[in-house]
Design brief:
23% of the residues lie in helices and 32% in strands. With 254 residues, the protein is of the alpha+beta class. The strands form two sheets. A seven-stranded mixed beta sheet has the order 1-2-3-7-6-5-4, sandwiched between helices. Strands 11-10-9-8-12 form a five-stranded antiparallel beta sheet, with no helix packed on it. The longest helix is centred in the last third of the chain and has 22 residues, at 170-191. The protein is globular. The protein binds biotin. Biotin binds next to helix 1, strand 3, strand 6 and strand 7.
Length: 254
């Protein structure tokens, strides 16, 4: 599926045919001492999952992978890596899709093309008990050859092929992502969150526009004005600003 020659020495590629979840497998390997850069990719998953325990339907033809990192940073900085990954993934998709497509990062962890979800990112971390990250697993699913029908998902979806890049495969998109991610991760380690935040905001879905966000106890609304230093979504309403740390940006009519 993936051409191992296309990956730098940072990555240790493990290719599987079928697995429950590449992220569960990466976490299992992390606990067993696997090194940073371990990259699990599978042709299909039988128990793929997304945020908030939702399932991630995983037929052959799409891309499913999880990357193990050991960034050695405080747990509080872990969410920043969602933005590193989603900006790199958006850039990778922009490099293969027709130039007229609009690729956007939807807070906190999706990539959209023309307002439709093409990829989702799931971050799972293991702390070492002292507030530092022991391991972080970034799990990514990208619709390459197919996407779920509208009635099966919360947010209308699309795929790389449906958007016109029919020559691309799971392996080719993975290789592009890995090149861009390695650079972006290195920059984050060297320069911190600020450049990442700027890059992500450069592609942010509905920045400067009203949004409704489903949160644990209801819905909050406001104009999306930025990201706070820990990656929270900053909303402004009636001259007041507040940060949302977890939630789902709901589909908008306009
Ligand atoms: C989301 O949109 O909620 C995130 C979806 C993440 C799905 C990917 S597929 C590869 C990896 N393995 C999983 O079980 N989940 C992630």
């Amino acid at each position: 599926m993936a051409d191992a020659a296309g990956f730098s020495g940072f990555y240790h590629l493990i290719e599987l045919d079928t697995v429950g979840s590449t992220s569960d497998e990466a976490r299992r390997l992390a606990r067993a001492g696997a090194t940073a850069g371990t990259l699990i990719v599978a042709r299909t998953q039988t128990a793929g999952h997304g945020r908030l325990g939702r399932s991630w339907i995983s037929p052959p033809g799409n891309l499913y992978f999880s990357l193990l990192l050991r960034p050695g940073c405080p747990v509080s900085q872990a969410p920043q890596l969602t933005f590193v990954a989603s900006a790199a993934l958006a850039d990778a998709l922009a490099s293969v899709l027709p130039a007229e497509r609009t690729i956007a990062c939807k807070w906190p962890n999706d990539v959209l093309v023309g307002g439709r979800k093409i990829a989702g990112i799931l971050l799972e971390s293991e702390a070492d008990g002292s507030g530092m990250l022991d391991a972080l697993v970034i799990g990514i699913g990208v619709n390459i050859a197919s996407h779920p029908p509208e009635e099966a998902v919360m947010y209308v979806a699309t795929s790389v092929h449906a958007e016109g890049a029919i020559a691309e495969t799971a392996g080719s998109v993975l290789a592009r992502f890995c090149r861009l991610f390695e650079t972006a991760y290195g920059e984050w380690q060297e320069n911190g969150f600020e450049p990442v935040r700027a890059a992500w905001l450069g592609r942010a879905h509905r920045l400067g526009r009203p949004v409704a966000v489903g949160v644990e106890d209801g819905t909050v609304a406001g104009v999306f004005v930025g990201l706070d230093p820990s990656g929270g979504m900053v909303l402004e309403e009636g001259g007041r600003r507040r940060s949302i740390l977890a939630g789902d940006v709901l589909a908008s009519a306009d």
